[in-house]
Amino acid sequence: MRTRPLGLALLCVLLTAASARRTDLHIVVVVNVANPLTTIPRERLSKIFLREISTWDNGQEILPVDQIDKSLARVAFARDVQKQSVSALRRYWQERIFSGNESPPPDRVTDADVLTYVRSNPGAIGYVLEGSDLGPGVKAVVVTWAARESNTVNSHS
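RE: above sequence
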C-alpha cells in the first residue's frame, strides 16, 4: 500500500501550489469612465465596500459591486484591500443584516459581469483580476496603500 502515502504527498503538493497561486493574484479596481476618480486609498476603498462611505465627493451615490464569494478576485480583494478573509466578511454582513443595517453590495459571477455593471452605472466601483480586458466605458483606478495618502482621492466634478 505504498500508493496511499504517495497519493497524500501529491495531494499536499497540489494544495500548496493552489494556495501559492492564490496569493499571487492581483486585482484592478475599476470605475465608470465618467467618474473623475483616478486614485483611491486602500482604507477608503475598503470602507466603500463595507458601506461605511456611500457617496462620492460630488454627492453621487457610490454603487460598489462585489464578486461572488468563491471567485479568485473576491479572495484577493478581501485579502489585499479589506485585510480579511471572505468568511470573515460574510459574518460581518450577516451581523449587519440581522441588526437591520445596510445589506452588502450586489455581487456578480465573473469579471465581465462586474465590468458590465460598472459600465452601466456612473457611480459604480468594482474590481476584476489583473489582466482582464476592461473594454470601453470603464477605467482602472490606482489604489494607494499608505495611510498618509488618504487625501489623494481625485473625485471632483
